[in-house]
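Form 7-S
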Amino acid sequence: MLDDRDRPAGGREDLEAALVLHYSRLVRIAYLALPPEGDRHGRVLAAHAIAQRSLSGRGAGPAGPAGLLGLPGRWLRRSSGPADGDSYATLRQAVVNAVLRRTWWPRSLHQPYVWGLRLFPLGGGSQELEVDAALRGLSVTARMAYVLLALEDLGADEVAGLLSGAGVRGVPAAMETAQRLLAEHPADVLESSEFDPCTLRTRPADVSRRRRQARGAALAGAAALALVLAVVIGVSGSGSTGADAAADAASAGPAHAPIQVDDSAWQQSPRLDFGVWPARGDGTSSAAVGPALDAWTTQHPDVLKLGPGAAAGPPLQPVHVLWNGQLDGATVVLLFDSTRLARYTLPDAPTADDPVRLDVVRADDSDLTSAGAVVLRSTDAGDRWLVAPWVDGVSVRDLRTPAVAASPATISDGVTDALPRPPASGCGSWPALQLHASATVGGQTFALTDLGGVTGTHLLYTAPPKGDPTQTPREVATPDTYGAESRVACDLPALQGQDVKQIDTWVFAQQPLPESQGLASWVCLRADQWSGSGSAASEFLPPSAQAPATVTGTEANGRTCSALGQNVVAQARWRAPDGKVYLLVAGTRHVVKVAVADAAGNVRQTVAAPEHTAAVVLTGAAATTGSGLGILDAGGGQLRPMDSQPGG
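Output:
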C-alpha cells in the first residue's frame, strides 16, 4: 500500500510539510468516502477543498495545533487529537471528520474555483467499476471505514477509533460492512486512476461559448491542467506553489498499458457507457494496437480526422481497447480514452477513397442509447456496426417506408453483417438501426442512424400535445414514431458529418387547415451534437403522408427546441383550393395569440390562438410580405419564428 510516509512531529510547520507531502493521498481519502450523489466534478472539488482546509490557521502552541486552517473549531471538538505528535494522522483525522460530519459542511465549505471546465478522474477497468458499484450502496461511514482499511492499511481498532473520533453513530455496523467489502475486493484497486482526483481529464462546460473565446488557449490549458492540477487548485495556506505536486506527476512513470475490460463489466456497472464495453475482435491484429496508439499520439495531419468538438492532443490514459481485428479488407482498431473514441483504419490496399486514417470523435457523457453502437467500417458493401454488449437484438429498417417491417441483422461477436448505409445523394431510402437492450438494463428498443460519423445518431420522437401533454421525448420504436420519421428523413442528409449525437422530431402543434382540408402538423427537428451545441429547423407537414415537408425556419446554432428553449413559433403561407392565401402560424403551449406584421414589422392584426394556432387570410401586398409573431401568455412578450423562410 501507499506507505511512503515521512510523518513529521507536531507543530504548524510540520503540518504544512505533511500536507504538501501527502496532499494527493488526503484528497483521495476524501474523494472515495464522499457520498456518490451528484456528479464526479463536484466530488473532485469537494475533496480538494476538504484536504486544503485540513491545516491549522490560528497558530500552534508547543503541544500542537490549535485548530485547522479554514476549518471551524467544531470540526475538531470531538477529535481524538494528534496521535503521538503524528502530523499526518492529525490531518487525516481532520479529513475524516470533515467527510463524516456531512450534515453541515456543504453550506460552509469554500471549494476551489474552476471556470469553463468539468473535471473527472481518468477511469479504470472492470475491477474499478465493481468497487465503485459496491461503494454506491454503502453509507458514508461504511465508505470511510473501507477506505481506511484498504487504502490506509489500518487495523480495525484504529479505524473504529478514527470513526468514533468524528462523533458518528453506527460504527460497529459500518466496520462489519467495510470488512466484508474488503474480503470481496482487492485493496490495491483503490490506487487506480478511477479514484485519483488529482490526475484528471477535462471537458468544457460550455463549448459553444468557449469556442468563440480563444479556443486554442482553452484546449492547451485543459491539457496542461491534467498534468499540473495542483498548480491550479494548489494547497491553500501551505505556501507551496504546486511544484512538488507537479514533480510527482512528472515522475509518475510510463503511461498505463491499454485496458481490456472484462466481458461482464457492464452487468455490474452503475453506469452504461463506452467505458464498460469489453475488448472484442478476431485477435489477428493485436499488433496493430501499438500503431493505433502511435497514430493518436503523433497525430499526422494526413492521417488524423478530428471530429467536431473533439479535443486535439494525444490520448488520456488509460486507453480502453474496444475492438481490434481484420474487417472487410482492413485492420481496424477502436480505442476509448474516457472522453473520445478513436477508430484507426489501415486498409490492406489503401486508396484515395479508402486511406489510412484515424477518426477521433467526442464520446463523453454517453449512455445506454448513445453508446449503443458505432460504425467500425463503411464500404460500398454497407456499414459494419459494433453494438454495445447490452444489446441483444438488432434489425434494420428504411425510415422512408415505415409500413415495411424491419429485417433482422446477423451479429457475430458484436459485429453486424454489412447493413445498408445512407445513399451518397438524395433520400429515396434512409436506413436506421433498430436495437433492443437486454432485459437486465430495461429491455427498451431504440433507433440509431449513420450520419457519417463513428458513433450512431440516436433518434427520438416527441408526440403532439394532445397525444402527450407532457411533451416527453421517447424512443423511435413504434409505428407512429416511424411514420413521423418518414416525413422528415429527407432532412437528415444536411446533418451528415456534424457529429450529431441525437435528433428529436418534436411535433409541437397540429392545425386544422381552412376549408376542411385536413389536419397539418408542425415539427421542430432538434439536432444536438456531442460538443454540446445544436441546431433546429421548423417544418410544416401537410395532411397527406405522401406530401413533402416544408422547412419554414432554421437556427444553425442555439437552444431553440431544446429543454432550455421550449417556446417556439413557426409560420408558412398556404394556398387553399379556392385560391385564397393564408398565413398559417403555430406555436407551443405558451403562445396564446398571433400577430400579423407588414414588411416594415408593424403589427396590423392580432387574433386569438386558443389551440396555439391561427390561420389569417392575406390579401394585397400582405400576401407576399406579411409575417406572423407569437404572443406569449406571460407578460404578452412577442416570439419570432426562427430565421423565417415562409413559403407554400
